[in-house]
Write a structure and sequence with these properties.
The complex is a heterotrimer of chains A (443), B (282) and C (293). Chain A has 443 residues and is α/β, with parallel strands linked by helices. Chain A has two domains: 198 residues, 3-Layer(aba) Sandwich (D-Maltodextrin-Binding Protein, domain 2); 221 residues, D-Maltodextrin-Binding Protein, domain 2 (3-Layer(aba) Sandwich), CATH 3.40.190. Helix content of chain A is 50%, strand content 12%. Chain A is globular. Chain B has two domains: 49 residues, no CATH class; 216 residues, MetI-like (MetI-like fold). Chain B has 13 helices and no strands. The longest helix of chain B is centred in the N-terminal third of the chain and has 32 residues. Chain C has 293 residues and is an all-alpha fold. Chain C folds into two domains: 27 residues; 222 residues, MetI-like fold (Orthogonal Bundle), CATH 1.10.3720.10. In chain C, a hairpin with a 7-residue loop joins strand 1 and strand 2. The radius of gyration of chain C is 24 Å and the shape is flat. The chains are: A alpha/beta (443), B mainly alpha (282), C mainly alpha (293). Chains in contact: A-B, A-C, B-C. At the B-C interface, helix 1, helix 4, helix 5, helix 6 and helix 7 of B face helix 1, helix 3, helix 4, helix 5 and helix 7 of C.
Chain lengths: 443, 282, 293
């Protein structure tokens, strides 16, 4: 109620700000001067999901330095937290009602605790057509019930890519498999050489669901099937879902996966790949930059990125699963100079300047860049070509309620992989929970 | 030590099994720590490729980088501050409470003692969210006091219990004679009880120190400013799930362990004395 | 009269500072949790009163039972593993059965000084499929696919964690026993030796009973401390795989923070408190002779 009353005010103010921005965007050099002279410095607090020690984070200090050069009057105070701890702490902050000016937000269920509280600013008033046209249009899908846009997602989080070590492939005389059967047929040869066929780590439990099952469900059922499963017209006990779980299980049974896949942490798995101990790696698209940082240049040049091989009964051949990558969002309470400064920051880091830096560090941004101006390495080029050729399905944990996914589905997949549960039993359990509790079915 | 007594040595079978158990324990402790220690001197690539090998060219660069990136200097200072203030405050609050609960003839002491005993059963995780909301309401979040007060509160139950069991053993006659002399109770506490409690106080101090030094959750949830972080919180920055900078991680782990080892070597004889003469007798 | 009043005032002035801090910080949250445990709430928005639903749910929740079972096992390993082992180690050191007893004492004590987060990191490097222990086994047996399958067993996945807990906490009890052993005069052991008592008889029949009260205090420490296993398990396995290493505290934490089910999480935290109360009361009944008040 209260929100509704203030909304027109915010919209009005925001459109004024947006108009001002539009003017400054048309005259970039003048705008820059104006910002620099704008007198009073503005300080913004930022709570960010960020692992400073991760080699993938190398782009960030560069981005901040460039921003500080352009807008010396906007000061930023960061608190970095990585992993699950980020969410735990942020929930406590949200419960207290006292949250920073900018904070990492996920488009989807993962940030429900902050989005459902109405604490995140709808960015639409800032988003002019002129600004939007430079991005991959997929990121402007509605993120809230009334079409709200909360984040300018800097990259698509493509969840399933198979990385190939072509050097090892050649040594063993193998071809990149087109179908899963072909890949399984290579197992004896790879194992005989003392190598792991398909490196993968599922200790943290979410990987098998986000990086594998989501893609398989899309291939066997498609997004239309999933939409209906959410509303209850379809059930998670349907064939596509059960079959997809069975495929996950088959990767363990055929020894494609490393022994103890549920005890391996993600970084340990791709570490094995980088060390040349695995021929293939099943991982997310955002691993490209980490591989580039960790591998020797010669090894890296021999990596290829391909789609997960075909599984029997595909409705949606060759697809992958993707969701919007997380991004900083704005506190709904921000007004005036602070909101203005915050938008300057967001449009800088996710717009042309920030995206160029991201690209330099090996991540393909949603902002459309002229790739010919960048020294795109071979793996990145293959990756760009790959995701442009694929349709993208849903990532289950971005769509469904957290308790069902984290308490039932993810541990359940592990149980299936370890042979303690059948795919059908897991599907029945999950459907039972969703039917009784999931917010999508209650509508 | 005058051990040349009539005491016979233990039989061979006992001594042999003693060696087996002791050496097993020692190996299990030394091996991971030594491995951690020398691994922290290797560059990351070497750790990944040859996890067990000794460093080819030992270097402290991981330490320098972890120290700078993690802001470990500030964190170390905060850790000392939180631990010291909370430990000393708990000690005197617990001694005073235990004195009141043992040497005064009021019926309500049963209630108070029971209330403190109940605290032994409350786990940190059961109260963290409501406690956070409470701290937000009264403005304690993001202050040092907001960390120290819960430290004290969670340490009081066990400390009060230990102090009670010790002060009980001090004869009531001491108090009575002081009463006759017309001394104030406050004087009795500071001039008689506190000095008499020195052995148990050492025990309480050490146990408190151990608990507070490694505490993670309160500092993590209740503070958002880098300037307020403690060492365990700063260290976990390097222990992220996606992180494979093992070199930095190991170096910061060693930095986290070292102060405790130093503390232990300084105090370990007092620790033994404290446990023996103090707290835990009938 | 006036004397009594001033006595009462000083009595309160000794107790109240500690009591008020304690009550202010601890009691409010527990009462709040108790109230929340009768509601359905996702941390914000309207609270829905659901009566005993959350407690009823527990009875049919398989994950809760795994957590309860593992908690019982951890209490058992704490009370019947750490404490007897601590006593045995203390006795061996006290009787100088090994050369360099002091050095061994220091080494055995070390683990307790290290934070659980660090301990978890260390042991993960040992146990993981690419860790030290499997690497050693692989090079010894030639089986290149060896992993510690115990972590994938529903019944036994908790065992390696119990082992780490034993390693981590035994030393505290050892030091406490050792200190108290020094107060027992050597003449008692001498006398027993003269009468021809074996070492085992001396240990079990003479020394152990004398230290029973100490063992009781240690048990209280061990039971309330067994919930510290949260830190270790949370960083070592997160309760996985497939909930096999779940304990109630980890499950409660995930339910509240990750699943945002504050009502059920609060009910779990109330059950945890009741569980510790029950465990301590059992111990107390078992060692009636000691008056702990």
């Amino acid at each position: 109620m209260k929100r509704n009353r203030t909304l027109p005010g915010i919209a009005l103010l925001a459109s004024v700000v947006a108009a001002a921005l539009l003017v400054s965007a048309c005259q970039p050099s003048k705008g820059k001067d104006a910002a620099a002279k704008a007198g009073e410095a503005v300080t913004l607090t930022v709570y960010m999901q960020h692992d400073q020690a991760n080699p993938q984070s190398a782009y960030w200090p560069v981005t901040l330095e460039a921003f500080a050069k352009k807008y010396p009057n906007i000061k930023l105070e960061f608190e970095y937290v990585s992993g699950e701890a980020f969410h735990q702490k942020f929930q406590a902050m949200a419960a207290s009602g006292d949250i920073p000016d900018l904070f990492t937000t996920y488009a989807g269920a993962r940030s429900g605790y902050i989005l459902d509280r109405g604490m995140v600013k709808d960015l639409r008033p800032f988003l002019t057509d002129d600004f939007k046209k430079d991005f991959n249009q997929a990121i402007w899908q509605p993120q809230g019930p009334n079409g709200e846009i909360y984040i300018v997602s800097p990259n698509m989080a493509v969840c399933t890519v198979v990385y190939v070590n072509t050097k090892l492939q050649k040594q063993l005389g193998l071809e990149t498999p087109k179908t899963l059967e072909e890949m399984i047929a290579q197992v004896p040869k790879i194992r005989a050489a003392g190598l792991t066929p398909l490196a993968f780590g599922n200790k943290a439990q979410w990987q098998a669901q986000s990086l594998l099952l989501s893609m398989l469900v899309d291939r066997l059922g498609g997004t239309a099937w999933f939409d209906k499963a959410m509303t209850g017209e379809n059930k998670f006990t349907d064939k596509p879902f059960v079959d997809a779980i069975a495929v996950v299980k088959s990767l363990v049974d055929t020894k494609l996966f490393p022994a103890g896949v549920n005890q391996l942490e993600g970084p340990q798995a791709w570490g094995e790949f980088v060390q040349g101990k695995a021929v293939y790696l099943l991982d997310a698209g955002w691993r490209v930059s980490a591989l580039k940082n960790a591998a020797t240049p010669e090894d890296y040049a021999a990596y290829a990125a391909v789609a997960f091989p075909a599984v029997p009964g595909e409705k949606n051949p060759g697809s992958s699963a993707a969701t919007l990558g997380e991004a900083l969002a704005m506190n709904a309470k921000l007004e005036g100079a602070k909101a203005d400064a915050a938008w300057k920051f967001l449009s800088f880091i996710y717009g042309a300047e920030g995206s160029a830096i991201l690209m330099d560090h090996g991540t393909v941004p949603t902002y459309k860049l002229d790739y010919s101006k960048f020294a795109v390495d071979s793996l990145s080029a293959q990756y760009i070509a790959l995701i442009n050729s694929q349709t993208m399905g849903y990532v289950i944990d971005a769509k469904m309620d957290s308790e069902g996914v984290n308490n039932l589905l993810n541990p359940g997949i592990q149980a299936v992989m370890m042979g303690a549960k059948t795919p059908a039993a897991l599907a029945a359990e999950y459907e039972g929970w969703v039917a009784a509790n999931d917010s999508h079915r209650k509508k | 030590m005058n051990d040349r007594s009539l005491l016979r040595r233990a039989p061979l079978s006992w001594r042999a099994s003693a060696y087996v158990i002791m050496i097993a324990f020692a190996v299990l402790t030394i091996f991971p720590l030594v491995w951690l220690g020398y691994s922290s001197l290797k560059p990351n690539a070497e750790i990944v490729k040859y996890p067990l090998a000794l460093p080819k060219a030992p270097s402290f660069s991981n330490y320098a980088e972890a120290w700078k990136k993690g802001g470990l200097d500030v964190a170390l200072l905060n850790s000392f501050l939180y631990t010291a203030v909370a430990t000393v405050s708990t000690l005197f609050l617990a001694l005073a409470a235990a004195f009141g609960l043992t040497k005064f003839p009021f019926a309500s002491k049963k209630f108070f003692t029971g209330a403190f005993a109940l605290g032994l059963m409350i786990t940190v995780h059961a109260v963290i969210i409501p406690l956070f909301l409470l701290e937000v309401r009264i403005g304690l979040v993001n202050t040092r006091l907001g960390v120290i007060l819960p430290y004290i509160a969670f340490d009081l139950p066990i400390s009060v219990m230990i102090a009670i069991s010790f002060i009980k053993g001090i004869p009531d006659a001491i108090l009575e004679s002081a009463e006759i002399d017309g001394a104030k109770y406050r004087q009795v506490f500071w001039l008689m009880i506190v000095p008499l409690c020195t052995p148990v106080a050492t025990t309480m101090l050490i146990l408190s120190f151990l608990r507070h030094w490694n505490e993670f959750l309160f500092v993590f949830i209740f503070t958002t400013k880098t300037a307020l972080k403690s060492l365990p919180v700063a260290i976990t920055q390097f222990a992220g799930r996606q992180n494979i900078e093992y070199g930095l991680q190991y170096a910061s782990l060693v930095i986290g362990i070292l102060p405790m080892i130093v503390f232990y070597f300084i105090f370990h004889s007092q620790l033994r004395k404290g446990f023996g003469e103090g707290a835990l007798k009938e | 009269m006036r004397n009594l009043r001033s006595k009462k005032l000083s009595y309160l002035s000794f107790i109240l500072p500690a009591f008020l801090i304690y009550v202010g910080i601890m009691v409010f949250p527990v009462v709040f949790s108790l109230a929340l445990s009768f509601t359905k709430w996702k941390g914000f928005g309207p609270m829905e009163f659901v009566g005993l639903d959350n407690y009823v749910r527990m009875f049919s929740d398989p994950v809760f039972y795994i957590g309860l079972r593992n908690n019982i096992l951890i209490v058992l390993v704490s009370v019947f593993g750490q404490i007897p082992l601590g006593l045995l180690l203390a006795y061996m050191l006290h009787r100088k059965m090994v050369r360099g007893a002091k050095k061994f004492e220091v080494l055995i004590f070390l683990p307790i000084t290290i934070s659980s987060v660090i301990v978890a990191q260390l042991w993960n490097r040992v146990f993981s499929p690419i860790g030290i222990l499997p690497s050693i086994v692989r090079s010894l047996t030639g089986n290149s696919e060896y992993i510690m399958t115990i972590f994938e067993s529903k019944a036994y996945a908790i065992v390696p964690i119990m082992f780490v807990l034993l390693w981590q906490h035994t030393s505290l009890y050892m030091v406490i026993f050792l200190a108290n052993l020094q107060r027992i005069p050597d003449s008692i052991i001498e006398a027993a030796q003269m009468e021809g008592a074996s070492e085992g008889t001396i240990f079990l029949k003479i020394i152990a009973p004398m230290l029973a009260p100490v063992a009781f205090i240690n048990s209280i420490l061990a039971i309330s401390g067994s919930f510290k296993s949260f830190d270790l398990i949370y960083s070592m396995t997160g309760g996985g795989p497939a909930h096999y290493t779940e304990v109630m505290a980890v499950y409660m934490y995930d339910t509240t923070f990750v699943y945002q089910n504050y009502g059920y999480g609060s009910a779990l935290s109330i059950i945890i408190i009741l569980f510790i109360v029950a465990a301590i009361m059992l111990t107390r009944a078992a060692t009636k002779k000691f008056n702990f008040d």
